[in-house]
Amino acid sequence: MADAVVGLLLENLSSLIQTEYGLLHGVKDEVEKLSLKLITVRAVIEDAETTQHTDNAIAGWLGRLKDTAYDAEDVLDEWLTQVRRSEFESSGQQVTNSWFYFNQPFFRHKIAKRIKKIHADFDAITGEIFKFDLKTRVVERGALLDPSRETSSLLVEPEQVYGRDKDQRKIVDMLISDASTSPNDVTVLSILGVGGLGKTTLAQLVYNDEKVSKCFEARMWVCVGEDFDVKRLTILIIECLSGKTCDLKGLDPQQNQLNDLLSGKRFLLVLDDVWNDDHDTWGKLKQSLTCGAKGSSILITTRLETVALMMGTLPLYRLSFLSDDDCWALFKGRACGMDDEGLSADLVEIGKQIFKKCGGVPLATKVLGALLRFKRNVNEWESVRESKIWELPEEKGGAILGVLRLSYNHLPPQLRQCFSYCSLYPKDRTLIKTELIQLWMANGFVRCIGRMELEDKGNYIFNELLRGSFFQDPQEDYFGNIVRCKMHDLMHDLACSLTKTECCSVEFEKMDTIPNSVRHLSLIVSSSKPSSNHSYKSLSKSNKSLHTHLVLSTSYPPSNQPPLQMIFNKLKYLRVLNLRRTGIQQVPNSIGGMKCLRYLNLSHNYNLIFLPDFICSLINLQTLNLNRCHNLTSLPKHMRKMRSLRHLDVGECLSLSKMPIKMGQMIGLRTLSMFVVGKRKGERINELNGLKHLSGELQLTGLELVKDSTEAKEVDLASKPNLSSLLLSWGEFSFRRWVDLQEEEEKKKMSERVLECLEPHVNLNQKLEVYGYQGVVFPSWISLLRNVKMIKLLECWNCETLPPLGQLPRLQVLRISGMKSLKCIGVEFYGEIGGHMKGFLSLEELHLEKMPNLEKWEFPYDDDNGKGTFPCLRKLCLVDCPKLETPSIFMQTSCCLRNLDSLKIGGVSFPTKYLSNLTSLNLNSFEISRCTLLKTLPAMGRMG
Questions:
Q1: Does the residue 562 lie in any domain?
Q2: Count of beta carbons in the 10 Å neighbourhood of residue 249
Q3: What range(s) does the Disease resistance protein winged helix domain occupy (predicted)?
């Protein structure tokens, strides 16, 4: 992480020099000298970081370097905060207190003194470089293949391979089948998995399989490593084929000889441990392998998904973790040999707890098993159970992290920093993608060049770590977006081993164990007995330079809420503060002094009623998360001053009645989950016009307060292409008898004009929800949202017709509920596609609910007899439509409902005989209730 920390410091120094404020203090020369010093130091960091694991002196030197760089960063951040405040205030062409403050001699002296102190510290650190003989250059990654990592096709311990029989059969079958049927000269199958998972072992099993040896005339095994040199690899392949040393120097004669050796032969080439993701380099090697017979195959093993996808022609084979049974068998084999009958019940119990640490990774299981080989003392087994893998001796447990650390060293510095920061989370904790990216941003880990947004760069980093197997188990939302993931236990161990002095995750009652050098802290709060106030005083006193403080609650509300005011009094350099689910009722006043704060999470605090005005003084704040603060009634009125704010999440703040005045000045906002329309100028909907960068989901509530269509048109949603979901909500509209009929009609017309003017960009690709709409007809633009996947039309009481939603090609979920005035769903609902009346080609779920006056549901009869409508429908819900006659759709079960999996019918009045066609459906779920005319149930003999 040292390279990333120093790199960030250099960037901030450069930014400061370029401002007029950076020249006010007479320290420009000092800053420029410091920048040059940092460039010199940075040149040897790569070399130092690769050797620190075996040299304690270098490790200590790196620690001092990082501490000094962090201290310098704190000084610069404080300085840049004043610069930013002055720039914001002077933009109003006023003589400000900040400008006056900058010109005071005491402030100039203070800044100059602190910069000189930092310069002196870096002088001392630079002077030590010669002691370690560190190379002042960037070490070329992958220049050499570590001999200890070189592999061969020989399987050393075939009798101790567990849980890979199924994988072996699958891959062998894929290779043999492809060899028989493939029209290509050579196909490529990639085995993907984390380090130590057994990719090489599996490839060895496949390579030595009897079926494979009979199918392929020639077989070759090459251990690639990080050095993907085409000439080197070509020579190794030649030597595998010929059994002789190849002395050819040029690539052309090498390729000619390879062509002679392979010509007309069906071959299998294993490329083990590939890291290269350069398409051109791979293309040069692959081209020389096209001389074999059709059906030839290449099998590669890699840790990187980018490599697997780039090289593979067949779907990649993602290797899974071992099952508990297989892990236990492997562990016993290593710990006891073939004789495990002598294990006592106590040792069996402890052993089963030990192998759980390995998380299904064979390498870790073997190492820990070998560590206990033939030991039968309970205390010895308990010591291994209680130890942390990265604290084991290097020649034992360290071998596990050595394998994983190779993947880490392969990352660019920026990605290393983002990965190691994740050690703040406890094991098995779900990592939320958007939260993680915002935390990286707040700490300055995400930096980008050019016009790329910080969020886009953070998304790229997340995806790269996922592809590199640093993250696992990605979970998607309904729209196919990855929203969360986890870290494998061993990857978490690796992250912790890299950040012992910087990141610390500690339980609430063990706060006294926090090292003074920690910059990033997560406090795990449970329901156990809290520790004394002394612990909090200690935290405030010794950890003044904390950059991250996460309070992670395991229960709500926590019974031992920390005395937050005491914790935060001294933490003026904090960048990240997470108080989610802590049960706070008011925001601690000490937060007002955190001028460097970039991320503040107060979400899920149901007793929080208001935010104090000092929140608006946090001019560096990028993210303010208030999600599910159900009782929050208002936001600070001067929030428009928060020019750095990019993400404001007020989703499910149910008591919020209006927005702060003039939010349109917050031009940096990317996320605004909800906007509540107000009555006064500056609170009205047209404030959204200035927010050009809005993305994600936007909910507009209180639309009944929009005074005219001009105001709605000024919102200009069509110019906001990054919005993916739009929720439009009117207040409840009631048919009160004493309301004048003309006034009622005017409300309907106004609602129609407002909705017409709220047309979103055609890029809207997730959800459109309309709630409480008071108009009679829907605007035509709804049928133009060709990318939207979900539409909900709820409580639209006055609507008498439905728009032609059937022509939306990507619509997957449609829910229509509470349309009291709708009497007929006609064929216009489906729209015309290609001259035929058919539609809903991608729809998977259809919900029709709470329509008391719906009498008829028509079904289009086209040239294909209905086969072109609802071809993908899996779930149909028809509830509380008491006047509905038998829907025509039930007469088309052989075509439009052929894929139906779930059917729910309730509160309808059609008789049993019209359900007879349902017997042909292959349903897994069938629910029927409150059907008064239903006498008997149809025979559903094919239900799964």
A1: no
A2: 9
A3: 424-495
